[in-house]
Prior knowledge:
Dihydrolipoyl dehydrogenase, seven-stranded mixed beta sheet, alpha/beta, FAD/NAD(P)-binding domain, single chain, 31% helix, NAD, Enolase-like, domain 1
Amino acid sequence: MEYDVIIIxxxxxxxxxxxxxxxxxxxxxxxxxxxxxGGTCLNVGCIxxxxxxxxxxxxxxxxHTFAEHGIKLTDLQVDLDQMIKxxxxxxxxxxxxxxxxxxxxxxxxxxxxxxxxxxxxxxIAKSDGSEETIKGKNIVxxxxxxxxSFPSMPxxxxxxxxxxxxxxxxxxPKHLVVIGAGVIGAELGSVYARLGSKVxxxxxxxxxxxxxxxxxxxxxQKVVKKLGADFYFSHKVTKVENTGDEVVVSIDKPKxxxxxxxxxxxxxxxxxxxxxxxxxxxxxxxxxxGLTADDRGRIDVDNHLRTSVPHIYALGDVIRGAMLAxxxxxxxxxxxxxxxxxKPHIHYKLIPGVVYTWPEVASVGYTEEEVKQENIxxxxxxxxxxxxxxxxxxxxxxxxxxxxxxxxxxxxxGVHMIGARAADMIAxxxxxMEFRASAEDVSRMSHAHPTYTEAFKEACLAATDxxxxxx
Length: 471
């Protein structure tokens, strides 16, 4: 069988690219190694984690804020089995939706492990032991990523777990150690902290979510600390050991902190290892296609997302850049349109990053650390959620919006938010920055009152000659 495009991997980048290829009239096939479509994001990543995050937030509010709203409850309990069941139902409906979209767009779907036979041929090894080979004029590698680990923290999927196992625990840990306070660690750590677990974050960097603007990490730490979490920043994990009913985590303190011992031992029920992800290109037999991967499994591509073999493309987590589902989606569309001769565009600096804790964290553009490093003249405007009428009405007063604007032109360079609905609010900042808006442009746009988005307008006013109205 011959196709115009074969896509290996059905995550957000793969299935979005497949649909766009089909819309453009290309005969398209998609290959998925697992029994369901959707990749990491829909099955064990974005979607199930958000389901648990929402469930845990409902429980936390019922326990801590409902009474103030005039809602009285007694004998409040967590039914973890039902939480996990609901999470899985959300996943099942979503993945079935992707299957429907493949049929609707007449995309042939193959289940099995795809690997190169030659630059145009892909062998599909199926679960029943049979094999099939298909050919494509163009091939897209969209195989995503998998959790990383280190020799000092061997994953056993029982007590020492990854995000995948954390999404289906059968008990609420009394004590959960989270190695890595980045996006995944922060999200899943906050889930169990809200359900009553003692959570200890161990992070090699000096703050939470260290790749984002430092202000956001500091603000998020304040919020998570209210849940009773402990933090060990600038600490290195030297050993993780499953002793049967417990996990013992040994960590080194940074030198020069008084007379305290240089090593600390934490004992917990579970240890979640969230130290990043690695491109999943194992088993693709890249050599048969004339390709190689680096030591993290990534494949090099040019500005058109072509590999060194011009008809083979790669996207998402298997190439450079942030490992974000929406980045992969944009790249899937980009490749489809490139194949048919269009001139698509992706502004990588304007792909937003989001952390789905509560309050949510969202960011786009330059961080303050980056503008300083690049010697860009800038000014800052910020506005706290506690000054918003809408936030006070909902009791969501934690957080702020921070806007960086060019000191001379007033063009918005970066927007960083932590607060209620920041994940949705960041889209306004992306829109403004795509059109190279100034802080004054946004400050002169009417924002409905009372809303959370007024915080963005007020931050822009603050960046424009310190003109914030409600602060």
